[in-house]
Structure formats: structure tokens, C-alpha cells
TrEMBL record:
Name listed for the protein in its UniProt record: DUF3597 domain-containing protein
Region (Disordered): 18-56
Comp. bias (Low complexity): 18-47
InterPro entries: DUF3597
DUF3597 domain span: 4-135
């Protein structure tokens, strides 16, 4: 499973239903630039606690719920490192550089501040493309 697929799966399918295991395939194709299949993850989204009446997953609610249960103060809204920590994923520079490669980052991966900002925006964008309801203040 791709790193992005893992992120999308943990947020859009936080309870890991059987159908959710198949969800990362559309995420992987979305990261390569294609957006086909982006609506398929919503079929299982309504089974999670973060679902909305339209069947999409409320990304903000899922992440705020995780943050409330986490002993650390993590700012997932602006920090890719904190978002990854909140999801209990590797947030090391090496892992973020791998995610940057997966998402076709063309900037300098040694400029971690710029890369981190770009990664956060891209992850939020991919969550929305894959059926997540993203807060307006996080959209470009």
C-alpha cells in the first residue's frame, strides 16, 4: 500500500471495514494525477463516526476526534508532521521525502519547510478527491 493510501485509509476509513481495505487503490491512482475512482471510497464512509448525511467522511471531525484522544498537542491543520503523528505514521524526514516522491514533488526536498507546506496541501487535496469533506479554510 502506498504511503498516501495509508493516510487516506486511516482518515476516510478509521474503523477499517472490509471494504475499506480495497479503498487505497483509487488513492494510489489519484496520486499519479488521475482522479478516476475518487468517489468509490464514499460507499463505506457512512459507516464511520465521521460520516455526514451525504455519506462523505468529515475529515475535520475524524482528525479532531483523534486529536482529542492523543496526549500530545498536535496541530494537524497546518503541520504534515503533526498530521502523520496523529495517524501514528512515520513522520521522519525520510518518510516525508518518500511521500513527496509519491506525490511528484518537484521542489527541493532538502528545503523541508517548503516541502512540508506543499505536502500538507496535497494530502488535504487528496482526501477531498477521495470523498472526504474538507474544511473550507484548508482548501487552496
Amino acid at each position: 500500500m502506498s504511503f498516501l493510501g495509508t493516510i487516506v485509509s486511516k482518515i476516510l476509513h478509521p474503523f477499517g471495514s472490509g471494504e475499506a481495505q480495497a479503498a487505497p487503490a483509487p488513492s494510489g491512482s489519484a496520486s499519479s494525477g488521475a482522479s478516476g475512482g475518487a468517489s468509490s471510497p464514499t460507499s463505506t464512509a457512512s459507516t464511520s463516526g465521521g460520516g455526514t448525511s451525504s455519506g462523505t467522511v468529515d475529515v475535520e471531525q475524524v482528525l479532531n476526534d483523534l486529536a482529542a484522544k492523543n496526549p500530545q498537542q498536535l496541530n494537524w491543520r497546518t503541520s504534515i508532521v503533526d498530521l502523520l503523528k496523529l495517524l501514528d505514521l512515520d513522520s521522519s524526514l525520510h518518510a516525508r521525502q518518500g511521500l513527496a516522491d509519491e506525490l511528484h514533488y518537484t521542489g527541493d526536498k532538502n528545503d523541508s519547510a517548503s516541502m512540508n507546506i506543499w505536502l500538507h496541501k496535497q494530502v488535504i487535496k487528496k482526501l477531498e478527491e477521495n470523498g472526504g469533506k474538507v474544511p473550507a479554510d484548508l482548501k487552496d
